[in-house]
Every structure is written in C-alpha cells, then in structure tokens.
Amino acid sequence: MSEMTNTLLEMKNVSKEYNGNPVLKDVNFTLKQGEVLGLVGENGAGKSTLMNILFGMEVIQQTGGYGGKVLIDGKEVKFASPLDALKAGIGMVHQEFSLLPGFTAAENILLNREPQNKSVLSLVFGDRANTIDRKKLQKEAIDAITKLGVELDPDMIVAEMPVGHKQFTEISREISKSAIRLLVLDEPTAVLTEKEAEMLLKAIRNLASQGISVIFITHRLQEILDVCNKVIVMRDGRIIKELEAADTSIPEMAKLMVGREVSTDKPKQDNDERKISDKIVLSVKNLWVDMPGETVRDVNLEVMDGEILGIGGLAGQGKLGIPNGIMGLFPAGGKIMLNGSEIPLNNPRACLDSSLAFVSEDRRGVGLLLDESLEWNIAFPAMQIQNKFLKNYLGGLIKWRDQAAIKEVTEKYISQLQIRCTSSLQKAKELSGGNQQKICLAKAFALEPKLLFVSEPTRGIDIGAKALVLQALREYNRKHGVTIVMISSELEELRQICDRIAIITDGAVSGILPAERPSEDFGILMVGKSKKEAM
Amino acid sequence: MDKAMELIRSFGLPRLIITLFLLALFIIAPFAGINVGASLTDVLGRFGQNAIMVLAMVPMIHSGCGLNFGLPLGIISGLLGATLAIETGIQGPISFFLAILYSTPFALIFGWGYGKLLNRVKGSEMMIATYVGFSSVAFMSIMWLILPYHSPTMVWGYTGQGLRTTISTEGFYYHILRDSLNLRIGSFSISFGEIIFFAVFAFIIWAFLHTKTGTAMTAVGSNPVFARASGINIDKQRTLSVIMSTWLGALGILCYQQGYGFVQLYQGPMYMAMPAVSAILIGGASVNKANITNVIIGTILYQGIVSMTPSVMNSLIHTDMSEVLRIIVSNGMILYALTRKSGASR
Amino acid sequence: MRKEITNKDVRNFLANNIVPIIFIVLCAVCIPIAGYSGEYLVDQIITRIVRNSFLVLSLLIPIMAGMGLNFGMTLGAMAGQIGLIFVTSWNVVSIPGLLLAAIIATPIAILLGWFCGKMLNMAKGREMITSYMISFFMNGVYQLIVLYGMGAVIPIHSNQVILPRGYGVRNTVDLLNVRKSIDNFWSIRIFADENGTGGLTIPVLTFILIAILCVIIIWFRKTKIGQDMRAVGQDMEVAREAGIKVERTRILAIIISTVFAAYGMIIYLSNMGTLNTYNSHSQIGMFSIAALLVGGASVSRASIKNVFLGIILFHLMFILTPQAGRNLIGQAQIGEFFRVFVSYGVITLSLVLYEIRTRREKAESAKTLAIGQKEAEA
Fold it and tell me: How far is C226 from chain A (nearest CA, A)?
C-alpha cells in the first residue's frame, strides 16, 4: 500500500435537503488512493443520500440538487447521471443483486459491454448486428475475477449460484470496467456466510493493494476493524466522527452510531409508574419467516400482558418479518401461543379471530384499499371478521352493509386521530402519508384487538404526524389495556414509548433490554454482539 | 375551460367520441330516410337481449379476475340448458323457465372448475380465460354431434343424429320476454318484459355488492394483499365471482336466444365474449373497476352503434361497412383498456 | 461417470414435456385407425414443413425477448397477403412475383410491427392478451383496406382480384401465377417407381430458404442484439441499469418477428396456391402458435428443435384425425372438431402449465428455510 498518497475523492461541505428537511449537513471527508473507508451509521443516517450524490443519481437532481462540492483528483465534478460517475471510474455494488438469472457469471460481468466482432452484416444493420466474441468475453471475465482474487466459475449460471458467488459476480462486474478507481460496497457481507465474507474481505484488501479505493458500508463493525484504514460514523445527516480503524473499538463505534447528543437521556416521557403484569400473553417459539429481505430464522419472544414491547434492529435483519410471519402474510413456521392456546400460522383469519391485529409497514401495498373510501378502509376488517357494521335481514341470511354505522365509526376516528380529509368518502390514495397511517391505525383500532402489532408506524411521515401517531398508540395502550408490539427502525422512538425493547440481528433475538437502558447498549446488540457482552 | 377538460377526462375520450358518434347517427338518421322510432325500438331490443351477458362481466372484474374472456363457458351452460329444455318438448313460457333451471347446475359446476383454474394462474387470467372459452366451445362442438338428443326440432333430419347448427326457439321461448308488457307508440315499441328481467338481475348484483360478501369481493379486486391481511380467503371469493359470472353468462345467452329466435350451437359462441367485454369498457369500466351503470350505458352505446351504423351507412353511401367498423371499435376499445397505465397489474 | 436416473428425473422430464408426449401418444393411436400409407404421411409432412416452418420460426425471437407468444404475427401475415394481392393483380409471375410481394410486404410489416411493439410496451406484463387483441383490431383495419379501400382508393383493377362490384378483394384469390414457384424451381423426387410416379417430392429451394432462416436465427442469438434481447427477456430492470435500451429492443423483436411472418405467409400461400382473403391470416396465427407449443416450447423458452418437432406432430394430428374420426365413428366432422379442440386445448394447457410451474419455482425458498430450522434443531 505504498501509493496511499494521492487524494482521490474529497467531499467539501456537502449538504442536501428533501422538501426543506435537511438530510445531510456539512459533510467533509477525503479518501486517498488505495484506501479503504468504512462508513457506518443507523438507517436514515444519510449514508445512502451521500452515495446517491456521489453517483449523480437522478433522484438528487429531481429534488433540487445538493450543496457543497465533490472533488475527484482535486477537480470539482458534478455528475448528471450514474453513467458519468462510471466514466469517472466510480463503481457501486448495491444491496440488491442486479443480475440476470439465466446468464452465466461471465455474461453478467460484461453485460452490455460484451467484446464484439464485426461481421459483414454489421455493415448493413449497424453495430448491434456484431457477433459477440465469446472467447474474449470469457477472458475478460476471468481477468476481473482474478483481479478480485476470489474463486468463481465464469460459466456458472447465476440462478444456480450460492448467494456469495452472486455477490462476487456483481463486484467483478464493477471491477471489469476498465477505469475503475473507486468501488462502493453497500452491505456486501449481509447475505454472505462467514467463509464467503472472509473471502470478500480478503478481496477488498487485494483491491486496495492494487490502488483501488473502497468505500465499505456495513453494520458489522468487526469487519470495519478487519479491513478499513479509517472509519466515518454518521448520524442524523452529519459525520459524527472520523476515526482511525486501528485506534477504535466496536463499543466506541456503536456508541457513536446510536448515541444522542441530548444531554438528559430521558427516554420515557410519562410519569405514570405502572406495573406490567408478569402474565405472558404471547409467546413465540422457533419462528422462521420467509419474507424476502427480512428473513426471520429463529425467533423466541415473550410478550407480557399490557406492555408495549419494542422490536428494533437494523434493516434487513428480520425484525419486519416477525409480525408479517405471525399474521400469516408470509410463509412461516414455529409455534405461537396466545394466552396459552396455539395460533395456527399462515392463516391471517385465525390470527384476527383470536383478537390479534396488525398495522403493516407497507401502507400502500398491504395497509390500504387505495381506490376505496376511508369508510371502507376503516370498517372493512371489523366488518369481515367481527360482523360489525352490518344489518341482518331474513334472519341473518342477508348481511347488508350498514352505511350509517360505517360513517359513524369513520367519523369518530377521523376526529379522534385528527385525520385531515375532505370527507369520510374521500379515497384513501388522496391522503398524505401521515393521514394514511392514521387510517391504518383506525382500521386496527376498529377491530378492538387484545394485542396489536404495529410495524414502522412513523416511516415516511412528518414530525408532527409522528408525534400524534405515537401519542395515539400510547393512549390506546393506557386506556384500553391493549398490549402493543411495535416494530421500528428508529431506536429513539422505541425508547420513548416502549417498556422493553428486543433487538433482532440475523433473524434472531440478540437481546431484550428495558427501554431505560442507554442507547449504546442497544447499539451493541444491533451490531451483533451477544446479550452477555452487552450486559 | 379547465372544468370542461376535467369532465372530458373523467368521462374518457373514447367514450365521448362514441357517444357523439351515436348522437350524430341519430341526428342524421331522419335525413337518410330512416325511421327513428323503429331504430330506437331496435336499439332497446338489442339492449334487452345483450345486457345480461354484459352484466356477467361485473363479478369477475370486481374480484380482480379481469375481463371475462371466458364468457363462452357460461354460454355453453346456457346452451346445454336450452337444448335440454327443448328436448323435453314442453312448449311455451315454462320452457324458458326450464332452460334456466337446467343450465344452472352446469353453470355452477363449470364456473367452479373455471374459477379453480383461474386461481392457479393469477396474473394471466385474461389470456387463459380466452383459451378456456375457445377450448370449451371446440369441445362442445364434438359433444353436440354425439350427445343422444332426439327431439326432431333439434336433430339433423337426414342422419337422425347430431344437433343442427341453429335451432329455432319458435314455439318454445321465442320472444317470451320481448312480447310481454310491450308498450307501443307508433313505430316505437318498448318491451318492459326484457327490461324488467334485466333490472331484476342487475338489482341482485347491485344488492350483492352491498352485502358483507360482496364487499369482500370488491376488496379482493381492489387490493388482494389488503384483503388477505384482513382475513379474507381470496381464492374463495374469486371462485364465487367466477361462478356468478358464468351463471349470468348462461342466463344472458338464454335471454339473447328468446329475442334473437335461434339457439346457435357449434362455433356460434366462439367470439361472443368480445362484444360483451367491449360494451362494458365503452360503458366506462376498466380492467378492475365496473358497476351497473357501466353495464347499462355501455350496452346502449355499443348496441346503438351496431344497429345504427349499418342502416345509416347503407342509405347514405350504399355500402355496408358497419361490420368492419364494429370490429375496429370494439377491439380498439379493449386494446385501449389493456394499454392504459391505470389498468393495474392485470 | 454414469448418471443415475432417478424417479425425480423421470417425473421432471414428463412434467416438462407433457405436451409433446400427449401428441406422440395421440398420433401413435391415430395412425393405425386412420389407415394412411406411410408414404402418404411422409409426403404430407414434408409439404407441411415446407408451408409452415417459416411462419413458426418467426415466433422464436419475441419469446427470446421475454414477450411471450406473439399473437401479433397475424399482422405480418396480413402484410404478406397484401403483397400477394398486389403482385397477382399486376400479373407478375413466378419467383419475381414472390420477390416483389416480399418487397411490398416488408415496409408494411415493419410499420405494423412497430405499432404492435409500441402497444406492447404500454402493456408490460400482459403482452400476450394485448398482442392477441391487436391482431383482432388490425384485422378490422385490414378488412377496411382490403374490402373497401382496394379498387376504390387503392388502384387495383384486375378482375381476378377485385369483386365484380368494382371494389374490394374477392373472398378467395387464385395465386396461379406464383403457385409453388419456389417449390418447383428446384425439386427432386426420391423413392419414385420406374414410371416416375409415386415417391416423394423434395422442394430443395424451399428447404434451403428454411435452412437459411434457421442459420439466421442461430446467428442472431450470437449477435449483440440477440444478447440484448435475452437480457431484456430475463429482467427488464437489470437490462435497463446496464444501459440496454429496453423499449427499443422489444420493439425491434416484434418488428423482426412481423417481417419474418410476412415472408412466411408468402411462402405458405404460394405453396397453397389460393388466398382466403379474410381468413388465412387469422387461422395461421393460431396454428403456428399451437404447433410451436406442441413441439415442447413454453411461453419463455423455444428452440428450432421445438419448431420442427411441433410442426410434424401437430400436422400429423391434423391429417390423421378426420380420417380416424370417420373410420371410428363414421363421421369425419368429429375429427375436424376434434382437431380444432386440440389446437385450442394445447395452447390452454401450455399456458396453464407454464403459469403453475413459474409459481412453484417461486415457492421454493420457504422450503429451504423450514429445512434449515429442522437441521438446526437436530
């Protein structure tokens, strides 16, 4: 690593806001040639926005550009599109694979950059009639794989590969681009087995020694220590600290990641000292859920009667899979006991019948009938499950929709939750995100559940609406004694409202702590340290 | 100005053009020496004849199964009912009742199987429905030849075996609805029998959509994931909707036969889905939203054009291009609905 | 290294090839019942291959581009027919006539293909039903032009072509001028007896043309554009990210298919010798698609092998069933209805099987998780 002298990339006072909300504030850092930079931070800390700016993604221009300067080799650049960034030698490997399942590794590596041979017909039909030079394609692919230094069969079809090899194919593709100088890896090890991850880390070191700089985004802090030269910790759109990897430790980074600067660390606002009963209302044993991107492997949990249990953890670790699996929306297995009786899995109806309710994180996809009125949205589940809002004729043979009762309940919730709408007949798709979220809550409240799952209730809504939603949940818990299990990516939000918080990593519970515990403890759980070490 | 544009947009440009075209036809008609009263009678007659087949689109659209290109399956149930009723030899109004009665079990069974099939191919219902319709028509063509019917009104005279291609309903249920409660003013006549018959079934569907089950069906079509999360058995709702559509298709063809005067077998039902699909789309429905108003407006517009264009064109330019125009308009309408973005993922 | 053939392999083979297997069994049963001579059957099959293979081959490219079965090939057939109508009315004979027909048909096919491709880009995910409706819609436009435009607006005056009323093309147009001109240009007889009768006639030039098209298709797969089409067919988004122009590539696939279909139609009709002005094109679409599926192709995968196996099996069934019906029940009509049923049925079956198979593949991942847990417990 002798050539770690020239500065390749420099960011100066970079800032960015979406609709007046600042998401990046005054970001400054430099990256030298052949250097490996670790980038860590919670979800929403601004990492992806920063990378989007670096890549000239369309979303940045569409939302009004950014402030500050990006310099490469000391010269300011403004990329209009990712293609420009590629030309400047910046490559990125995203979390989701962007591979064609039916193509071989080699074909994927050189997708749309295939070496070609001119033929007679090219003269007539133009360059697209060139034949593909298979031999050269093979050779170039192997070159890229060798440069990366991993074992990968260029002739293997992607669909038949283990996940790790897909990841290697993806990285090889970036490396095969001739001008590559800076490689951004977004959570590359999240899907890999331990052995594959080790191979990848070795490959990163290998690339750095060839003078390629790497920005390595990961939640696994040990990997940062293993492979990076320096680390940037981001929080709330700022760089909190720049550290030399050799001089830091996992607890330090974890603390920086989640710690708030708020001087008085008082998470719970209410002063009502209430006793949570020690009666177990819901117990989850060996739960697995096949939810793409949020796989749950083996979760064991117990929920106490009347409490608010928080479930936190980083994105992709499986926290969202838990309620979705229990409520039967994704294939699941394991044993769920509610008040001592078992609830069958993969059967949404059975869950609803036993007075469970669920407010999904996917408002538009799962939570709402976008094309129907608010009345329908709020009343529908209660009508179908509990025969509410129905008039019976002919001795119950005909169950007629009771429009008046539906209107009444809708208006009740509209005023109670302060839903802003023109009338109870407005279509759900016309409301703002926050109000849509309140509709989803109203829908669940109308079921009068004993236990309520709420998944990411504040995602994508503004601060005012956030407070209202959280307030509504707290009140609902206090007034009706309803047990609530709340899943959220925002630790502070969980600490505000929950009694206990469980942290999920790698599809399993890594620890459950009382909400009063300092954020660092949760941070350490999140990055995959076992319960014992956190205590 | 903006408001006018907004109105046009909500009404849909193709529908506006078709409405204006039909109006123009009616305005031109007297100058071309066409009796407007008789034309209106014709349009209303065709409405009564076809409206139930268009109504048969509604349940499947509501449950998200898309446009029912498999209508021929329902029609075949109706044909089985019709031929069985004629086979009994019982004449008069009772034969119509019998035809409905006999076709019902077939419609239920076929609809159930068809629904089960469509549940296994979610996302490509329309293509498969089309071919299910075609296959069943072709299969029944064989059956009409070999099923042991005996009634001399239906069987080929010279071989004594196999049914005729068209069978007259004369003496059985010919004009059984058309001629009941008929009001005649000059050259204009309106059959309340047919209209009431349609109204009854339209009301039943309307009412059904206001019940608990009907609400669930609409929700399944509107957002299947929402419905599943709310504990609805999606497949059951969809199957139910397909059974309803199939049964309405059977009723629809019987109603058509009483007005038209013939039972058309063999390849007859092959392309009968297209006019019905097109009519409901002209009425303002989309691939996943439809209501009774769409059915009524669509049937009147579609049948209006089909019956008015030939007569007006013939008397004006002495050429009958109407069949070709009908093909272009009705298929163009379906194409328009399929290529619209708002048509959701189906 | 001998591979063990397990029960599972056999089951997979059966499941993936169920349609051809049904047809082989069907034909095997019908051959003795129909009682045709082997020579007659082989002769017939050669004729059918000559007639149909170009048309069926035209379906391959849209499948490669992930657009499913191109029901819009009917558009190409219409273009071919318009070309033939012109050359017949101008009395251009033999091979020059066919060439001219192809030259006239090409721009029409390109235009129609472009329109169809544009439409299909607006209806991603339901290409098949849309292309099917396009063929219906265009059929109306075709009739408008041919039945009312030709002779009235478009100057065609030949009595052989135009209806006695002075405009509109006759229901059937005799293609004597170009009939079998490619086939007879160079044909050889094999297995003929001493008098020179009987035996089989092999139209060499037609076979050469078909072979050339096969070579073109194989070569096409190896070109950049072929690679792009395969990429677009697998995942439009990934292809787009890699910088491939997805929409253009899809339109191009349809245009190529439509143009080939136009040429195929010209070859088909020149072999038949008569043009059914208002029916030929709509039937040919269904028969070509059915034949391809019978050969074991699916909505997303088709090869040249499928084309020829399909034509042989499908048309064998087509020839056999009326005679088998007559010999079995005494009615040829049953056989005719039966083959219509089989054509539709086979398309239905293939579509349904394809959907079910795709669904099953998606459900696999849950199983692996469940297994993983069991292993962990053990």
Answer: 8
The per-residue pLDDT for range A246-290, each reduced to its tens digit, is 888 888 887 787 765 443 344 455 555 566 777 888 999 999 998
Task: Sheet with A308-312: list strands edge to edge.
Answer: A341-342, A332-338, A280-289, A296-304, A508-514, A500-505, A308-312, A483-487, A451-455, A356-359
Q: Which residues of chain A are in CATH 3.40.50.300 domains?
A: 1-89+179-258, 264-355+449-535
* Residue in B127, B136, B306 to test binding to C, most C beta-carbons within 10 Å: B127
| Dihedral-angle region of residue C96 (phi above 0 means left; psi in -120 to 50 means alpha; beta otherwise) | alpha
CATH numeric code, A1-89+179-258: 3.40.50.300
Query: Which residue in the set B213, B226, B232 is minimally distant from A368, CB to CB?
Result: B226
**Using CB atoms, which chains have 3+ pairs under 8 A with C?**
A, B
Q: What is the reported pLDDT for B56?
A: 93
Nearest to C231 by CA among A169, A107, A152: A107
C352 part of contact set with chain B, CB < 8 Å: yes
Domain assignments of chain B as residue spans, ordered by start: 14-183+190-337
Nearest by CB to A401, which of B215, B229, B289?
B215
For residue C104, being part of any structural domain is answered with yes
List of chain C residues whose C-beta atoms are within 8 Å of the C-beta of residue B146: 329, 334
- The three-class DSSP label of residue B125 is helix
Note the pLDDT of residue A262.
40
C200/C173 Cα distance (integer angstroms): 28
Q: What's the token pair of residue C287?
A: 């028969």
- The rounded distance, in Å, linking the Cα atoms of C373 and A334 is 9
C137 pLDDT tier (thresholds 50, 70, 90): very high
| Reported pTM | 0.84
Among B124, B235, B336, the strongest candidate for a mutation testing the C interface, having the largest count of C CBs within 10 A, is: B124
Chain A hits for C250, CB-CB cut-off 8 Å, are none
The Cα diameter of chain B in Å comes to 69
Contact C139 B327 (CB under 8 A): yes
Position C256 confidence tier, pLDDT thresholds 50, 70, 90: very high
DSSP B314: H
B339 interaction partners in chain C (CB closer than 8 Å)? 119, 122-123, 130
Tell me: pLDDT of A532 over 70: no
Touching check for C143 and chain B: CB below 8 Å?
yes
Give the 3-state secondary structure of residue C25.
Answer: helix
Long-range (24+ apart) CB contacts under 8 A made by C352-357 are C352/B117, C352/B120, C352/B121, C352/B128, C353/C18, C353/C19, C353/C298, C354/C298, C354/C299, C354/C300, C355/B120, C355/B121, C355/B123, C355/B124, C355/B128, C356/B120, C356/B121, C357/C15, C357/C298
Tell me what the pLDDT averaged over chain A comes to.
84
The complex scores an ipTM of: 0.82
Chain C neighbors of A100, CB-CB under 8 A: 231, 234-235, 238-239
Q: Rounded to a whole number, what is the distance in angstroms from the first to the last CA of chain C?
A: 33
Interchain proximity C355–B346, CB inside 8 Å:
no
> Which fold does the domain A264-355+449-535 belong to in CATH?
Rossmann fold (3.40.50)
Q: Give the pLDDT confidence of B183-237 residue by residue, as tens digits.
A: 787 778 888 888 888 999 999 999 999 888 999 999 998 888 899 988 889 999 9
The two structure tokens encoding residue A220: 């696994």
Return the CATH architecture of domain B14-183+190-337. Answer: Orthogonal Bundle (1.10)
Q: Taking CB atoms and an 8 Å limit, are B274 and C136 in contact across chains?
A: yes
Sites in chain B below the pLDDT cut of 70: 1-2, 10, 341-346
Distance from CA of B89 to the nearest CA of C (A): 27
pLDDT of residue C124: 84
Per-residue pLDDT, A533: 40
